[in-house]
Write a structure and sequence with these properties.
The complex is a heterodimer. Chain A is α/β, with parallel strands linked by helices. Helices cover 45% and strands 18% of the residues of chain A. Chain A folds into 3 domains: 115 residues, Rossmann fold; 115 residues, Response regulator (Rossmann fold, 3-Layer(aba) Sandwich), CATH 3.40.50.2300; 114 residues, 2-Layer Sandwich (Transcription Regulator spoIIAA). The N and C termini of chain A lie far apart (53 Å). Chain B is mainly α. Chain B folds into 2 domains: 74 residues, no CATH class; 176 residues, Hypothetical protein af1432, CATH 1.10.3210.10. Chain B has 14 helices and no strands. The longest helix of chain B has 27 residues. The chains are: A alpha/beta, B mainly alpha. The interface between A and B is medium-sized, with 22 and 19 residues.
């Protein structure tokens, strides 16, 4: 599956490319409509993500040329333009959907999958996979996200896993391969966990089939603990990772952090970034701050590309730790400066006290509430 | 629309706009209310132990009655000040005696029903549209995580307040022309087009004169485009609700399907609403207006 992104912003193209490749698709880029048309001529494109305002040739002009030339490739408008007359004209030219910048990765993924739903979901060139995927395509818009799919022929495994997962997370469990494959045609799963020793089918084959139906999914094996390097062996068979039996809370914490915590650690809305609270043991605190830093850096690119002058980072729920917070805040401030953004920090009293104790952080603009930060002055 | 019809529309629209704007400026506007809403509200306030919330729940089905209550509550007689309040707060502020007076006045100014069944239907849909938009705007605000559900309801209810106002003037004119002078009245397309041309200006003039809450004024003035600098604003909820109502048949006159489709598409992304949420929003819309004119 090849997806062409036409956008004059390198930052936007970079973010979109990351999303597309994470979904298992190939990303092609063009920085204006003229280049976009040339890329369309070069090779088969399955979907176009099209900006509106661009130099040389804008999005509506490229779309008009595509349709004049008889191209029926689906197009999703990905733009900061919200004028209805422009979008209505694009609708007349047959756009499939619309995404307003700045956007959430989830929205891009859902809308891309919805548009591509009628087409093959497997990588090109694999006839069997394409046929399986064709059969799998459900009615547009009917897919629903489920956090975990478990395939294990022992029912007690399902009970144990359910007990360890947080209550808000959704899980579907199956004791054999066929119902799991059927479900993968109807729903979208974030993580698939497969018993490494299934009775009715080879686990790695099932993993491969499920991945064909859902290219974005993480597929984990559930082996028994062993003195052999079983994790390496299973990865060689195509699994993304392992989750050892019997399950432990420590392993579950790692699993949640790796596959589900990213969105909770930092949420972004326009130019406001909110750090989530830290849950878990103290020794995992380092991982929290590393992940926070990684997500912050990615979010900064989006804020800068949306042309904001300042970024507001709400740290009021982040852990107020003397050994972590000042260093993290210094990094946040330096990176905001490099991106040409003014950083405004919302902090609680404890964090404020910690930051005031260091020369490097004591003069940073700190605010007690989001309202104050938005206004740019302390109450 | 033929050239002759277009000329007739321009002539009537120009005349009516002048009359309505002058009446607003001179504070001489006679506004009709929906009889069923007034009657049910009166029933509630006649009880010794009524509460304002119950009255508000019925009164908020009538945009004109609601606008009048808000106006009264923000007037100098009741301390003016805050222009940010919901209908229950407005009724509480003006008190039981004034609420009763307001309703008795409303009962005296009943909505005239056109002899032309098409115009009567269009008139009814004008009011129904506002109620459907109001309910959906409140739901959209809630789904988008906004705390301003009640303000969104008022914004939706009053976003087209100029329409029932102009419609009622046209109905009054019809009563004079057909009922008193026994002359021929205008056709439905002209009736609909006259309202479409002047309602926005009339609504804005009314909102300014009556000093309706700021957010309501914004909805009347700006609800045909989204404000992407403030995604969760009430105007955006009303704009999407307005488009969805039209898409679901709660509209008066012809609609441009691409234009409405574009507004729905933009609104979905702007407010982060999935197709399942939209389907829920649009379910049972008819129930929201059932019995309104009985």
């Amino acid at each position: 599956m090849r997806v062409l992104t036409v956008d004059d912003s390198r930052a936007v193209r970079s973010i979109v490319r990351k999303q597309i490749t994470e979904m298992g698709f190939e990303a092609i880029e063009a920085e204006d409509g003229q280049q976009g048309l040339e890329k369309l001529k070069e090779g088969e494109i399955d979907l176009v993500l099209l900006d509106v305002t661009m130099p040389v040739m804008d999005g509506p002009a490229m779309l008009a040329k595509m349709r004049e030339g008889g191209s029926k490739i689906p197009v999703i408008m990905l733009t900061s333009e919200s004028k209805r007359s422009i979008v209505a004209n694009a609708m007349r030219l047959g756009i499939s959907d619309y995404i307003l910048k700045p956007f959430k990765p989830e929205e891009l993924r859902t809308k891309m999958l919805k548009v591509l739903d009628g087409d093959e979901l497997a990588p090109a060139g694999d006839g069997a996979a394409a046929a399986a995927a064709q059969e799998a395509a459900p009615a547009p818009g009917t897919r629903q996200f489920i956090d975990v799919m478990l395939v294990d022929d022992m029912e007690n495994v399902s009970r144990k896993l359910r007990a360890l997962l947080p209550p808000h997370m959704t899980m579907h469990s199956f004791i054999s391969a066929q119902p799991a494959l059927n479900a993968a045609k109807e729903k979208m799963y974030r993580v698939v966990m497969i018993d490494a020793d299934l009775a009715d089918v080879q686990s790695s084959v099932l993993g491969h089939q499920l991945r064909m139906l859902q290219p974005h999914v993480a597929v984990l094996a559930l082996p028994l603990r062993s003195t052999n390097d079983v994790a390496r062996e299973l990865k060689a068979e195509g699994f993304d990772g392992v989750f050892f039996k019997p399950f432990t809370q420590d392993d579950m914490d790692d699993f949640l952090q790796r596959y589900f915590d990213s969105q909770d650690i930092l949420t972004a809305e326009d130019n406001v970034l909110r750090a989530g609270p830290f849950h878990g043991k103290d020794e995992r605190m380092g991982h929290y701050f590393e992940k926070l830093h990684e997500l912050y850096a990615a979010a900064l690119v989006k804020v800068a590309s949306a042309c904001y002058d300042e970024v507001i980072l709400d740290l009021s729920q982040a852990p107020a730790r003397q050994e972590k917070m000042p260093k993290a805040v210094m990094q946040f401030a330096a990176e905001a400066g490099s991106a040409g953004l003014d950083l405004r920090l919302v902090v609680n009293a404890e964090t404020k006290k910690i930051l005031a104790a260091f020369t490097e952080t004591r003069d940073l603009p700190l605010f007690a509430s989001m309202q104050e930060a938005r206004a740019g002055k302390a109450a | 629309m033929s050239e002759g019809t277009s000329t007739e529309t321009t002539k009537i629209a120009g005349w009516l706009e002048g009359v309505v704007l002058k009446r607003i400026a001179d504070d001489q506007l006679v506004l009709p209310s929906i009889p069923g809403v007034v009657a049910r509200s009166l029933e509630i306030v006649r009880k010794a132990d009524f509460n304002f919330k119950d009255v508000a729940q019925v009164m908020e089905m009538d945009p004109v009655l609601t606008a009048r209550a808000l106006r009264l509550a923000t007037s100098a007689a009741f301390g003016a000040g805050s222009t940010k309040l919901n209908l229950t707060e407005a009724l509480t502020r003006i008190g039981a005696k004034s609420v009763k007076t307001l309703l008795i006045e409303g009962a005296a100014q009943k909505l005239f029903i056109s002899k032309n069944p098409q115009i009567a239907g269009a008139s009814r849909r004008t009011w129904e549209h506002s109620i459907v938009v109001a309910g959906m705007a409140r739901d959209i605000a809630a789904l988008a995580g906004s705390q301003s559900g009640e303000a969104a309801y008022l914004g939706g209810l009053l976003h087209d307040v100029g329409k029932p106002l102009v419609a009622s003037m046209l109905l009054e004119a019809e009563r004079q022309v057909v009922g008193v002078r026994n002359q021929k009245w205008i056709d439905t397309p002209v009736w609909v087009e006259v309202i479409a041309r002047i309602h926005r200006k009339v609504g804005v003039a009314l909102a300014e004169k009556w000093q309706l809450p700021d957010e309501v004024c914004r909805c009347i003035r700006d609800c045909s485009e989204y404000d992407n600098s403030d995604r969760s604003s009430i105007v955006n909820a009303v704009c999407l609700a307005n488009a969805l109502a039209k898409q679901n048949g709660f509209a008066v006159g012809p609609i441009d399907a691409d234009d409405v489709g574009a507004l729905v598409m933009i609104g979905r992304s702007l407010l982060g609403l999935g197709p399942e949420m939209l389907a829920k929003l649009c379910a049972d819309l008819k129930e929201r207006v059932n019995g309104l004119f009985e």
